[in-house]
Design goal:
The protein is of the alpha+beta class and 410 residues long. Helices cover 53% and strands 19% of the residues. The longest helix is centred in the C-terminal third of the chain and has 39 residues, at 265-303.
Length: 410
C-alpha cells in the first residue's frame, strides 16, 4: 500500500461518519484542546515579540550596536589615527566619541547624583535618542549659553522647565588636582548648563542621564582629549559579530569591544527565558490534551478492526495499518492546531490594527504590542505534529496487534 492511500484512508476516517460511540466527541474535544493551546501559544509569543521589539528600540537610545571601552580605568586617550582605522573597517557606518561619569547636579534647591554623558552631534546618528525628546530641542550646544538634554525623571525631581530661561543646572565633579580637601569650593570642578530639552524613554534612563557637549564634559572631568567609550553604528547589512572580531584584532587587549547583546546580557537572557518558559507550560497543556486523543484513537481502532482485516487480506502490510492511525492522529492535531493558529493570528492582527487591550497607566504605548513571526508559526506547527504523532503511536501499535488477533480468530 502506498503512502498516498494511507493518507486518503486517514482523511476518510477524519471526515466519514462514525458509529454511535464516544469517538466523535473525544476527537472533537482533543482537537478543541489543541486549538486552544496552539492559539494561546501564537498570541503569547506575538505579545512577547512585541514587547521585545519595543524594549530593543528603547535600548537603542543608549546602547549602540558596538561599544568600545577601556579594559582598565575610566578613560582612555583619543587617538585620531586609531579612530580613522576603526572607521575604515568594513561595516562601520559612524563613530560617536563619548565621555561619561557620575556627577552631583543641583537645580532649584534640589541635589541628586546623575550620569553626565558628553557627546557630539554624531551621537544622535549612532543612538536613537531624538524620537524620545518630548519637550524643548533635540540638540545640544557648547556656545555662550551651554545647553543640555535631561531625562524626564531628573527634570521632574529638580523642577525644571525648558521654556523658563532662568532655569539652570549646576554640575559638580571632584577635582583630583586641587590637592586639598579643606576648601570645598576648590575641591570640585563646576559646570553650569541650561536645560534645553527633555527625553522620556524609561525610568532606567530618565532618572540617570544628562546629555551635554563633549568638550564641556571633558573640561568638567579634567580629561581633555580623553574618552570613556567609542559608540559605533553599523551599516544595515553588516554582521556585528564579524565587525566586533575585526575590532578586537585591531585594538588588542587594552580595549573591550561589546555588541548590543553583550552590553545587556541579562536583559536579553531574561526575555528569551520567559518566552521558552511560556512555551514549556503550553506544551504541557498540549500533552495533557493528547490523552484525549489517545483514548479517541484507541476507540477508533476497535471500531475499524474489520476494515483493517480487509486491508490485510488485500495485501496491506503492518506498517501500513500503523501508518493509517498515525496519520489520523497527525490530522486531528493539525486540524486543531490550524484552527487555533488561524483564530490566534486573527486576534493578533486585530490587536495590531485596533489596539483592543490597553496597557493603562503612563506608558510610551497605549495598547499591548504584538508582532507575528513566521518562525513562531513553524515552531507551533512542528510541536502540534509531534504531539499528534506521539499520541497516535500507542493506538497505532494496538491496531496492528488487534488486526493480527482478528485474523487468527477468523
Amino acid at each position: 500500500m502506498n503512502r498516498t492511500l494511507v493518507w486518503k484512508l486517514a482523511i476518510r476516517y477524519l471526515r466519514g461518519k462514525r458509529g454511535a460511540n464516544a469517538v466523535p466527541i473525544l476527537s472533537r474535544i482533543s482537537m478543541l484542546a489543541i486549538a486552544v493551546g496552539s492559539g494561546a501559544m501564537i498570541v503569547l509569543f506575538s505579545v512577547f515579540n512585541g514587547f521585545e521589539g519595543i524594549v530593543r528600540d528603547l535600548y537603542k537610545a543608549f546602547y549602540p550596536e558596538i561599544k568600545i571601552t577601556a579594559a582598565r580605568g575610566k578613560f582612555f586617550a583619543a587617538d585620531s589615527m586609531q579612530l580613522q582605522r576603526v572607521k575604515a573597517i568594513t561595516g562601520v557606518r559612524n563613530i560617536a566619541p563619548v565621555i561619561e561619569d557620575n556627577v552631583l547636579i543641583s537645580g532649584n534647591g534640589e541635589q541628586i547624583v546623575i550620569t553626565l554623558k558628553g557627546i557630539t552631534s554624531v551621537y544622535f546618528d549612532v543612538n536613537d535618542v531624538k524620537p524620545y525628546v518630548t519637550a524643548g530641542r533635540d540638540s545640544i550646544s557648547a556656545g555662550p549659553v551651554p545647553t543640555a538634554i535631561v531625562g524626564e525623571h531628573i527634570a521632574n525631581q529638580l523642577g525644571l522647565d525648558v521654556d523658563n530661561m532662568f532655569n539652570d543646572l549646576a554640575l559638580y565633579y571632584p577635582d583630583a588636582s586641587s590637592g586639598t580637601a579643606f576648601n570645598i569650593q576648590s575641591s570640585f570642578q563646576t559646570l553650569r548648563l541650561k536645560p534645553d530639552g527633555v527625553f522620556r524613554i524609561q525610568d532606567e534612563f530618565d532618572a540617570k542621564y544628562v546629555l551635554a557637549a563633549l568638550p564641556l564634559a571633558q573640561q568638567l572631568f579634567n580629561a581633555q582629549d580623553r574618552l570613556s567609550s567609542l559608540e559605533i553604528a553599523l551599516d544595515p547589512k553588516a554582521d556585528a559579530v564579524k565587525v566586533q572580531s575585526e575590532l578586537k584584532t585591531l585594538l588588542g587587549n587594552r580595549f573591550k569591544v561589546e555588541t548590543r547583546y553583550e552590553q545587556n546580557k541579562t536583559l536579553y537572557m531574561v526575555m528569551r527565558t520567559e518566552k521558552w518558559a511560556v512555551y514549556a507550560i503550553l506544551l504541557l497543556v498540549l500533552l495533557i490534551a493528547s490523552f484525549n486523543m489517545i483514548g479517541a484513537l484507541s476507540l477508533l481502532v476497535l471500531e475499524k478492526q474489520k476494515d483493517m482485516a480487509i486491508l490485510r487480506a488485500m495485501g496491506a502490510q503492518q506498517r501500513d495499518i500503523r501508518g493509517i492511525f498515525i496519520a489520523e492522529g497527525i490530522l486531528w492535531a493539525l486540524t486543531g492546531g490550524g484552527i487555533g493558529l488561524f483564530l490566534g493570528g486573527l486576534t493578533c492582527l486585530g490587536q495590531q490594527h485596533f489596539g483592543w487591550l490597553k496597557l493603562g497607566g503612563s506608558f510610551i504605548i497605549d495598547a499591548y504590542p504584538v508582532s507575528l513571526q513566521f518562525a513562531d508559526f513553524l515552531l507551533i506547527i512542528t510541536t502540534v505534529v509531534a504531539v499528534g504523532f506521539l499520541a497516535a503511536w500507542y493506538p497505532a501499535r494496538r491496531a496492528v496487534r488487534a488486526e493480527a488477533a482478528s485474523l487468527r480468530s477468523d
